[in-house]
Design a protein that fits this description.
By secondary structure, the protein is α/β, with parallel strands linked by helices. It is built from eight helices and 14 strands.
């Protein structure tokens, strides 16, 4: 969805939101409204891209008029090998959710982890149960120094390896499995980056439960949160926060220099 004016000049900075179901998310509408409110000559367009077409689409951005892209979570690991330059976090954890084009070079970074941490900080979260050992879980564990974090996964050996990889000392690790009864009510938040198909073993959840998944993707945490009548936050519940983060990232990288008052046709 484009902004209300739908005005594009040869100066307009065009961006894409790339995802399998990008058109079903409102992130483009949220960001375009922010561009318009800030008088910025920029526009982001949702791009529904299948997995088979993802590599071709991103590689061809190098010679296109698209100046960058926000990458949906299902492709955040797949895009890394296509980048020409990457931030320290991208190189360290192998995920990327935002990129900009500098001539024919693609430069990638990670925004989502800090969006989540800022959200939890605003909610006055102190103690977190982190589920999973994915690259996103590693990035969160690495950056979330201000929180007390306990770690959960089905395989304790893999979980121990996970904590050693990010050099956590005396980490509180816990097994979570179908045969168990789990109570998360003592935590301020549950953050799920796992591939669990259900959370039926969870008898009690926290007041804040987050997994950052887009609404089209199945969320076991969302299902269990609804069953236990607790709040849930996925990607679509944090659109404003993501929109603000993308806007600030583009400004920081001097991608929003032109505004509507300087439009030249």
């Amino acid at each position: 969805m484009m902004n209300d004016a739908n005005e594009i000049s040869h100066q307009t900075k065009l961006y894409g939101f790339i995802g399998e179901f990008a058109g079903q998310s409102s992130i483009s509408a949220v960001l375009n409204k922010k561009f318009k409110a800030s008088n910025k000559d920029a526009m982001i367009i949702p791009m529904n891209i299948r997995e088979d077409d993802f590599y071709f689409t991103v590689v061809n951005m190098k010679k296109s008029h698209v100046n960058g892209a926000f990458i949906s979570s299902e492709y955040s690991s797949k895009v890394v090998d296509i980048l020409d330059e990457a931030s320290e976090l991208v190189l360290k954890f192998g995920i990327c959710d935002v990129l900009i084009r500098d001539e024919q070079r693609l430069i990638g970074d990670v925004l989502g982890t800090n969006v989540l941490i800022d959200f939890l900080r605003i909610k006055d979260v102190k103690k977190v149960a982190l589920i999973g050992i994915s690259p996103s879980a590693k990035a969160f564990a690495y950056l979330a120094e201000e929180f007390t974090v306990d770690y959960y996964y089905r395989d304790l050996e893999m979980l121990m390896d996970f904590t050693s990889q990010i050099q956590l000392v005396d980490a509180d690790i816990n097994r979570i499995a179908d045969s168990m009864s789990i109570d998360f009510s003592s935590y301020d938040a549950v953050v799920d980056f796992s591939d669990f198909e259900n959370f039926e073993m969870v008898e009690k959840l926290s007041a804040i439960n987050v997994d950052m998944k887009p609404k089209k993707e199945f969320s076991a945490l969302k299902k269990r949160s609804k069953e236990l009548e607790q709040s849930y936050f996925g990607f679509d519940e944090l659109l404003v926060e993501f929109g603000d983060a993308i806007f600030k990232y583009l400004e920081k990288n001097k991608h929003l220099e032109y505004d509507k008052s300087n439009m030249r046709f």
